[in-house]
What we know:
By secondary structure, the protein is mostly beta strands. It has helices at residues 111-116, 235-240, and strands at 4-10, 13-19, 25-29, 34-39, 67-68, 90-96, 101-108, 121-129, 133-142, 148-154, 157-159, 167-169, 176-178, 183-185, 192-194, 199-203, 210-214, 217-224, 228-233, 253-267, 272-281.
Amino acid sequence: MYATISETRFKSQPAVTIDTRDGAQAILSLRGGQLLHWQPAGGQPWLYLSEQACFDGSMAIRGGVPVCFPQFAQTGKLPRHGLVRTALWQLTEQRIDDDVAMLTLATASNDATRALWPFDFTLELTVAVGANRLDIELAVTNTGYRAFAFSAALHTYLRVAEVELALLSGLAGKPYRNALDNTLIDRDPHPALAVDGPIDRIYHAITRPLLLDDNSRHLLIVQEQFPDAVIWNPWEDGAAQLADMPDRDFRRMLCVEAAAVRERIELAADDTWWGRQSLIDTRVSTA
């Protein structure tokens, strides 16, 4: 079997499919530059995608890995999570090696974005897929003549068998802001995070990998240059308020997002910043 990168359509939207020689697969929508599906070789899909997600471009796609830029959530005056979640991206580069398939999508500022945020930028999203590993990197280039500041996130929706039984390790001792009541917690005392109700936390100073234990499978989550990690699940009442998500699907997902939120990133003219999230299925053999 040979690795392939194919331009296709998914739910009527232009998309790109990656199939590796080992049998791993990924699907990206050019609408939003959004990873929608990742399945490691010999494993089960790790990304949650709502059956009720909207694919007509009128709103962001619920699930996968949305790109948040230049604002996270409602931390500023821009639309929620920024300006690029419904933009059309372009496939600009692709490469296939023996064990890894990689592609880059790009989008840039235009009259519509400048009407809301008066700065020029280019975004590149590079996705690399191997047998048991996914790397997704966001690069931001300031193409204007003056500096700007931004926040950003890879808003990763992970699929779990039952969210109340999943455990997320690696956050012990970290400070976080509880966005549900806007309180600040100096340190999380728990060795592992168990979700048994609505959660919306922004953890800070993330320097080591996280580990998601989902029943019989495990996912190592590594982030670089993203100093924050957002953990989100709307729970029953919150899910019921989302028209693009089945009411009971809160049990099947947990967002673990690589983010730069607490302190905005200052980017000078002509400079580039990048941040990366890597997902590694530790139960899939790479032999």
